[in-house]
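Reopening this one. Same input as before:
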Amino acid sequence: MLCYSETRVIDEHGNFGTDLKEQLNLRAASPVDRYRRDLASGHIFLGLIRMDALKKTRQHDSIYSADIVLLAELALLGEFYEIPEALFYRRVHSESSCIKFTPQAVAVFEDPTNSGRILLPRWRLAFELARSLQSSHLHFYEKLRCSPQIGLWYVRFSKGLVLDLLLAVKQIMHLTVQSR
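Same output, byte for byte:
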């Protein structure tokens, strides 16, 4: 379903950093085995994707970390292959969106109608990952076998989930004070 290369990181001065080798050669025939891998990567979805597979996904939805949801949906559909050579160059610097913006700011960038709203972007990501499994073509038993991965994602995102709640409470308190 997806073929991508290793990534070479470049800093703001054009100096090469380390190569990112995701090693997500998801060659397993079983969608369950592919889905159980850690799919959190900021670049592999920029590889070549089969159009027929992409049409079966929600593509790149307007949410924080939509790439992870897309990769989860693609992993349920078929294999991934990593070309063992750095062919993609990713520039990372202090103004990079992955460094500069909070998840809330990314959610507003992805969907400007979110501006001024109380947002829980990491909760939305976790929900969308669970939804991607639920709406998949898999049989009930296969979905059941994949579901522990959803729990692992919630554990992995736990600090961010708590932070989302704390920021939401802070926004609510600020709005309450302003309305008095």
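So the earlier flakiness isn't reproducible anymore. For the record, The CA atoms of residues 6 and 86 lie 4 Å apart.
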